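Below is how a single chain appears once it has passed through the pipeline. First comes the sequence as given, then the structure the pipeline wrote out for it. We keep one example in the README because the format questions we get most often are answered faster by looking than by reading.
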Amino acid sequence: MKEKKITQDTADSECVGPKQMEADYNNPVDTANILLLPVKVKKKKVKKADDKVINRKKHEARKRRLEETEVKISKTKRKKLIKVMERKKKKESKESLLKNLMQYQLSTGTMSKLTAEIHPRKRAKPEECFVPKKLSNLAGCKCVLFPELKKQPLQENYYETGSESEDDLLLTEEVITMDAESSMCTVDGKDMERKQVEDSADRRQENLTNQNTDESKLMIKHHETINLLEPNTSELDVANLPVKISCIRNKMSLLEGAQKSNFVPVHRSESVEAQRSKLPIYAEEQSIMEAINENYATIICGETGSGKTTQLPQFLYEAGYTRDGKMIGITEPRRVAAMAMAARVAQEMNLPNAVSYQIKYEGNRSAETSILFMTDGVLMKEMQKDVMLSAYSVIVIDEAHERSMYSDVLIGLLTRIAPYRFRMGSPLKLIIMSATLRLVDFKNKRLFPISLPPVLTIDARQYPVSIHFEKRTPKNYLVAAFHKICEIHEKKGPGTILVFLSGKLEVMALLKWLVERYAIGQKRCERKKRRVEGKKLKQSQLELKKATSNQSKKAGKSADEDLADNRFADADNLDCGDPGSEISENLRPEGPCPRHSLALPLFCLPLYSLLSSKKQQRIFEPAPDGHRMCVVATNVAETSLTIPAVRYVIDSGREKRRHYDPVTGVSQFLVSWISQASADQRAGRAGRVQPGEVYRLYSSAVYSDFEKFSPPEILTKPVDQLVLHLKSMNIVKVANFPFPTPPDEDSLEEAERRLIRLGALQVAVKNNVKQARINLFGKTLSIFPLAPAFAKILVMANQHSLMTHACCLVAALSVREPLIPLYSLRGGSDRETQALMLQVLKQRRSWCPPGQARNFGDLTVIMRAILSAEALEGSQEECHRLGVRHKALIEIRKLRQQLIKIINSRCPQDKPFTVKIDMKPPTDEEMLMLRQIVTASLTDNIAKRVDPVAAGDLSKGAYQSQKLKDYVYIDPGSILFKDEPEWVLYQEIVERKHKKYMQNVICVERNWLPRLANTYCHFTSVKEAEPRYDPATDSILILMDGTFSDMHWSLGKVEQPLPVNVTLYRYFAQFFLDGSVCPSLATYADKLLLSPSTMTKPWAKLQMRTEKLLNALIEYEVTSRGRLAEVWRDKSEYLLDEYLEWLPQFLHEKVQMNWPPS
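Resulting structure:
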């Protein structure tokens, strides 16, 4: 069939014709008639003039949107975008450079003929891939072989040539090495292939850096030469460049990291290494160091016995934190812990000169010190000299759960100093470390505003510890502790027993009971039994001790006798409490129980804070052969210390805690329950060297009622010294300081109020806000390591040439219990005890004869006792005879020497200030001056005797303090106990047997208070009282009714200076006219045109001469003769015209000739 042709006349010229359509459609299968429809062609729109306007508007709108978007981009984002663009440009330029450099690449044959210039005789060997075994990550942290690996520049040109250029370095830096046996890679200029090679190398580099390699065992041969290319390979083609696939890049990264690492080798003995490897923290070294290296602050929570205190300083030392002359500082809350840990770390590291300790008044710090253990107060004092702590690279706050005041302040300061040191290029690492820590107080934005520190937990304890509770909580926990010790000693296996009690008296009482029950040496027991027939066991022991001491002079003693004498000396000669107290009578076990026949002797040692350092160190010595050691301690042994071979811990659950009332300022020591954190710390003392057992003398229900954590010390102590210290560091708003636990605002305000009254702060107005700022006097007080009131005593004493006696007095008052209380004195028997008490009491009364010495009260006794003991060279026997604690005397001596150094360095004088050992006691005049100085400094502690007639049913000797509602009494051991003066001043109030006693009391005269304690007095005007000018004080005085403190104790009618106001200027003008101020003008007083009293009349403003004279005085602020003389030295005719207006004309010439008057 013929194809039908259809034509279309009306088709547009642009349309395809039917012939063309027919030609395009050639389908041999389709034989049907072909119907071709005409194609509709869209007509092109012809642009008009309006289209240009529309396009322009669209372009402008799009441009505006881009500009708005660009404006919205922040500066930080814009900088990031610019850096991205720069990296892209560098990458493009680097790729083009590589393509151009490929044509200059040496052939493989040529490279194989070359020889390294470093070791020309050694032929290079093909290097195999170095892949350390992969270890599992510890504690979920990333393991980094070298912390500085990513930051180290890599050297890829291993052939040292004389014509090394930057182009060669660029070429070699881009050579990527891979596994030689796995595959070959070509570089042909395509971005995708190069990217794959680079990603593969990066992954291998990351895998290598994640390997846990022991740096101490990593041996890298520095003399090893490495060839980039295999020998005997074909020439390189520019289009298809073969690359050697090996681990050269990884190997050289390790080499560079090892060469630039700060690792410091430490040579330890095998036994020490074996002991360290058993500690739980030893396995966590890498994760801990990674966290420390990557963060400026780190928190480590490790259970007791994990070894964190001894091992972390060694980790830091080995990591190179002391290579640049910096030190690693570790703060401990207790002096004993600082000394013990320094000795332990020095022994393990075998570096006795590199590890030192520094505590108050004592230390072995030297120029070679790299690790320094110290108390927090020492570091706080060091920050006063160098707030940035530039000598340290790491600060470790150990036992942070103790929450001492200075540790809290240190943490607050270091959280601000560490980021600043990091920005300055000299990083300071802060590590907060404890076994039990309240993380909420430390992990918050208030303390760490930049970033929260990581928390690393070391869960493992060395050995398992079983904890046993009592079914019922015993009332007499001291007796329960005694029976538990006997049960353990007679029925349990070997191991040291550690007992926790609340105070020194309990420690010594329990020690005596144990000595009575367990004698040392069978022969000694037999001799003792023969001597104690019909007598008490205690008296027989004391008599036996005296007998053996007499025998030792004639013949030598056996080892058992020496051992028993030492133990009895501890129990008898030290302060053991009042025999009539609850401890020695009510809590004493009913009769000595016979000991088990097979029980070994028990070697008992006390441990408490007031014990001498020499006796405290005895707990670290091994027990004698065949003896079990029993350490009876207070909470001193709760933290940081590791007593050897402790297996059994007996926890009474009590502690003597200082309770401080921030409002009243009264502190008292009370026995109370411990916290759960403290109980866990005590339990942690067991199980350090073997499986341990803990016996808690309370039920589990009582334990669940304990507080989780002990209250921070900053909430239980006066904050006056802390506030003054922070003010001296220009911290005006102390409430805004980043405390881990902020103190109560009321206590801070009360402390500021006391410092204002003391004169250390002054109120200033800034931006309509009142602020208490430190003044020059306050800055002077802040340089002394004393309470502000005691520092004021030194400053005032220096003005009256009493510094030697004031220094001795302040040092004695700053030390806890310088004198042994009378009820704590002990003799060989009851008669000797009574005789010793009478002797000491008679001695103390002889030091206070009637007069100023008697009025100075207990402070006279303290000064005379210290001076007498110093004159006798401070031996223990003489101290005991004088009733002075020997340890307190040593501490007083050290504090006095420290104060002398501060005075000579910060307060230079004509002659260096020194204190002689044989210093004479103060005279009566000096004693009177010291009384007034103490009154002006400790005004808060003034009390007034209650009138027994007005009070009614009150016991004799009751006093009313300024802030306590309860009545207080003079301590029975005070010299002024029987005198009962009307006004007294005390150092502190102590509560005993539900009665509050004032300690260290002196007499105060009532007429001193308006002058020495003016800020505490309130005055009201007396009707019809007329002011008078006092030439002695050069002031205008007026009679007023005075009261003292907020209790409004009456001071009677007292004369007080007029306050500075217009009235003061009017009265000064009156006394100037009548000749009281200038006696030479008294001859003209009766010749004045008006009476001088006109100046104070209500109608004085009507007289021009009165206003003129008043304005002249106000202009120069003249209210005294001294100020008037100063103005006359600069302006001799001052007040001449004003005074002549009060005189007749004929006297003007005479007055002018004699002006200014005398």
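The mean pLDDT is 76.

See the next section for the split statistics.
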